[in-house]
Amino acid sequence: MDVKGKLVVVTGGAGGIGLGLCRRFAREGAKRVIVADVNEAGALSVAEEIDGTAVTCDAGREEDLIRLVRFTEQTYGGIDLFCSNAGVIVMGGVEAGNEDWKRIWEINVMAHVYAARALLPGMIKRGGGAFMVTASAAGLLSQIGSLPYSVTKHAAVGLAENIAITYGDRGIKVFLLCPQAVRSEMTRQGGGVAALDGLIEPEEVADAVIDSFNREEFLILPHPEVKTYMQRKTTDYDRWLRGMRKLQSRFAASEARPLESNPKAGLPPSQRDILSQTGE
Ligand SMILES: NC(=O)c1ccc[n+]([C@@H]2O[C@H](COP(=O)([O-])OP(=O)(O)OC[C@H]3O[C@@H](n4cnc5c(N)ncnc54)[C@H](O)[C@@H]3O)[C@@H](O)[C@H]2O)c1
User: Fold this and answer.
1) Distance from the CA of 218 to the CA of which of 15, 81, 155, 210 falls in 20 to 30 A?
2) pTM of the model as a whole
3) What's the pLDDT tens digit per position in 112-129?
4) For the chain, what is the radius of gyration of the CA atoms?
């Protein structure tokens, strides 16, 4: 799939991975890039930089997504590619509060449902279109230190798979973006996606996206080693869980030390560390 000449929407486009995608799509010659973000000033600044259009939108609210799709289609025509990218993280386990669970569920899962519901009928009528979901390697493996992130990203993976199965023969191309750690506000704030190693730049994520678009490959892995981890998980689930428990105890131990003596405190280990932990 070629982005050249396409009408593209990116949610969470004002920063991090979304910003990297907006810049790259503009460079690839997209007809127009719609920068949709809850951060109005950020969206305006990116739109100005890439000669795109800013739309203020909270991806966790269905009315905002309906407005985004309607505005774009009435102003510029049918959307060719919609990147449902905005996402948030909440650290913690079962003790995380219900309000946090509801919010992360709305943004990391329902946002994709709302977008697909607003978009797909029009795309099917026009003969096709593309829908990319930004999930995470945490949706294929797990996220040490965050139950809400692991659960919602697994749900996003399941959603993308099912949409690909249901609508693939009706012209809808679905792409599933599953990075490990990427430099962004999320990782800068020490969010659970941060890793002890393997942090890549948003530009590298955009490279992987364009490569997978060219190959029309559903699963986009900017960290190719994630495929090996998936294989290890499915080959021996119990061994994988044992390795993850070791990582979990390392994370818990590093959290227990004071931050100033341990700058990595609060950052869970990366999946890459599993290799040494499991002795493989
Ligand atoms: N950064 C990572 O290491 C990493 C790894 C794997 C997956 N992801 C996923 O990639 C996506 C982008 O992550 P990022 O690290 O670039 O995030 P980020 O925290 O840097 O945020 C990117 C943008 O999303 C916007 N945003 C936040 N909530 C929004 C909402 N409700 N509606 C619209 N916009 C909203 C922010 O204003 C910001 O401009 C997320 O789905 C995240 O879960 C990130």
Assistant:
1) 15
2) 0.93
3) 999 999 999 999 999 999
4) 19
